[in-house]
Amino acid sequence: MKTNQFLFAIVMAQTADNSNCTATGIPYSCCTGLLSGSCQDASSATIEVPSGWTEIRHDTCGTDVVMSIAYRTAQSTDTSESQFTWDFLGQGQPADSSSCTDYGTPYACCTGNATGTCPYAPFLASGGITLVANVDTVTPIENVSELCTLDSTTLTAPSINTTENNSLVLLGFGIVGDNDISKPAGYSVVYQHSIALSGPDIANLSSTTVFPSSGTSTGDQSSTADLAGDNIGYQVGLSPPVP
Questions:
Q1: Rounded to whole angstroms, how far apart are CA atoms 68 and 59?
Q2: Each residue's pLDDT tens digit in the chain (243 positions)?
Q3: CB of 71 within 8 A of CB of 11?
Q4: Residue 135: which residues within 8 A CB-CB, separation 6 or more?
Q5: Which residues of 178-193 are buried (b: 16+ CB within 10 A; e: fewer)?
Q6: What is this structure's pTM?
Q7: Which residues, listed in sequence order, are joined to residue 235 by a DSSP beta bridge?
Q8: Can you tell me the distance from the alpha carbon of 190 to that of 171, in angstroms, rounded to the nearest whole number?
Q9: Engineering a disulfide at 118: which of 46, 97, 113, 243 sits with its beta carbon 3.0 to 4.6 angstroms away?
Q10: Long-range contact list for 97-101, CB < 8 A, 24+ apart?
Q11: Which of 9, 71, 42 is CA-nearest to residue 148?
């Protein structure tokens, strides 16, 4: 095991907007023709967390956003090239693709006649993983907060109270669309990722210093996006290693 190292993941999916459909099955399997489709609302999806990961929260915002944050204690076999897969289970999808008769028929996950990736439905998604050192890997999470804001350029991660001395705070933001967001003062950007032309946009930020005293209120942390959209903000307090 890699001593006191912790992996933190953010995964967000937004509805595969059927206004992007250009033909049957293009660019999404749920497209049933030009500018039409049966793309499933992302809020109805279940995010399947990979084996070995623990989900911290799973939240929706409006009908077009679903977001999950999770953690994993780093293992000796984990490397910078390790990959983990999050699947999106569509509501009401069949157990297999044998009943598919055409693109998106009778289920959104159908990619053609008797083919498909059921029971997984098509969504647009972004994800990222952060490696954090000097974390208590037995009880790493002190507190966590979440806020959904509908159709706004402001993303807010509500304040939490630390429960240990020398706590590190992570922020997680996600917003629909091909976006860009600002960073709050006192935090540094670990990564920001958006799918070009469509989104969603996610970002992970870390406090630039630890919070020295237990019981400290971290304050609401807000970010501003270029474009308004449904969004979610998280604050996560991490415990330092036990002396």
A1: 6
A2: 466 899 999 999 887 666 666 776 666 666 655 555 556 678 877 888 999 999 999 999 998 889 999 999 988 888 888 889 898 776 666 666 677 777 767 776 676 665 655 666 667 789 999 999 999 989 999 999 999 999 999 999 999 999 999 999 999 999 998 899 999 999 999 999 988 777 889 999 999 999 999 999 999 999 999 999 999 999 999 999 987
A3: no
A4: 4, 5, 6, 168, 238, 239, 240, 241
A5: ebebebbeebeebebe
A6: 0.84
A7: 145, 171
A8: 10
A9: 97
A10: none
A11: 42
CA–CA–CA angle 18, 38, 57 (5° rounding): 85
In terms of Cα–Cα distance, which of 58, 65, 52 is closest to 13?
65
Report whether 38 contacts 31 (CB < 8 A): no
- Residue 60 pairs in a beta bridge with 66
N-terminal to C-terminal alpha carbon distance within the chain: 18
In whole angstroms, give the CA distance from residue 132 to residue 115.
Answer: 41
All structural domains of the chain with their residue ranges = 5-15+46-87+123-238
Token pair listed for 202: 């996610």
Residue 192 to residues 109, 175, 182, 205, 241: CA-CA distances in angstroms? 29, 11, 10, 9, 27
